[in-house]
Amino acid sequence: MPPPPRHVNHDLVPMGCPVHLDDVDLFGEGAQEHWYESYEILHRDAPVLRIEGGGLTDGADAFVLTKHDDVVAVVKDPERFRVVTTLRVDKHVERGLTPEEAYAESRSLMHASMVSLRPTQELYFQHRRELTDPWVGPGALRHREMIAEIAHGLIDEWIDDGEVDFVQGFARPLPQIVMATILGFPREDIGRLAAWGDAAVTPFVHGSGLRHELSAEQAEDMNLRLEGFQDYIDAHVAAKRADPRDDMVSFLCDVRYEALGRKLTDIEIAGIVHAMIIGGLETTQYALVEQAQLLCEDPAAFAELRSDPSRIRSFVEESLRLRAPTHGLSTRVTTRDEVFQGVDVPAGSLLHLRFGAANVDGEEFERPFDLDLDRAALTRHVTFSTGPRVCPGATLSRVEQQVAWATLLERLASIEYGDGNDWLHQPGIMLSTLRVIVRTTPAPTGSADSTPPATHDPA
What we know:
Blueprint: H1 35-45, E1 48-51, E2 62-65, H2 68-75, E3 81-83, H3 84-94, H4 99-106, H5 109-117, H6 121-136, H7 144-156, E4 163-165, H8 166-171, H9 173-183, H10 190-200, H11 202-206, H12 216-225, H13 229-242, H14 248-254, E5 256-257, E6 262-263, H15 266-297, H16 299-307, H17 312-322, E7 329-334, E8 338-340, E9 343-345, E10 350-353, H18 355-358, H19 394-411, E11 412-417, E12 437-442
Parallel strand pairs: 2-10
Antiparallel strand pairs: 1-2, 3-7, 4-12, 5-6, 7-10, 8-9, 11-12
Helix pairs in contact: 3-5, 4-5, 5-15, 7-9, 7-19, 9-15, 10-15, 13-14, 13-15, 15-17, 15-19, 17-19
């Protein structure tokens, strides 16, 4: 019996399915259930959508960019289209604040660490090359065996049950355990790390509008939930300095950062670790969950990947395009008057880059809503952005996804939807299905002691 079709329960959310441009609301309650219908309307009727008063300053507007070419042009030129975070850090630098003073004021470990680590574009490149690339950039390729071992262990827990919530049983714990292992944190602390990670992304889940704004009560609650996080990192930094191990925190404690001619301070290390926890958990989880749904909806694709694991890389890239984990971010400000798709965009405007829409732009991708493993130039999607500020952990996420599916396809003979799915998504700008119940059949030759097929270099 074929798996049931995927349903979108439009009647379970207050927002109706858009039919005309006036119906489109990318940021309202329940918008996640209608994003793809909205993108088709925006591409046709308003590829550059003006949001009056949505800018960062009084009287400034914001503009939602949905076309692939426009998004790529913006992210490839961070000097012409300034990064919002950089603008905020620049203000700390101009005032002569130390990282500690910046943290006391902003309560952001990442902003504080950037005061000294990378206030300029040149330092951004050096920051990645010297500090993160060895672990979550190109260096992530060495983590394959570790990731496969974790994946096998998770599958062992439910493979004989016949049914599992794929979110809680695999997609969520896998990147949590991988990141804790890379950083050198104990597995028994994963629950605390996950809770801190959830708190840190509160603006992107519960924030309102395209600027992800929190109320005073929401901000206070977020800060309360983050209490203890810096103390936890500080304690581990002290332990790693005294007794270094083969992990990222030990590496950061010892590495000499050539741009500054010295080793990193505790708050600088804390900022990097904070960024790893935020960026290293959510994206991979959401990608794996959407990939499971794609394969439940396309048994032929599942069978093809089982018979030819060399196509797993193509599947990962095409699914990242089709179901981007992060659909949009308000990250850039224009430094001069611009024109996008014939629309005048004044200097000082906030740009909301809609990655999810750019990835299904019919002028860039033929049959944009089809899963096509033979699609040319598979990595031209913008799920991880592109250009000089591409996501520093993109390689690690790709390796995790490739190894995860190599392992799952080896261990499972089939996967299909189980009972009880409602298809609802979490609020915010990330595509996160809250639960996905799947039925699975073990592969006759599956073994937790075997190694998944080697995956292609994700770069």
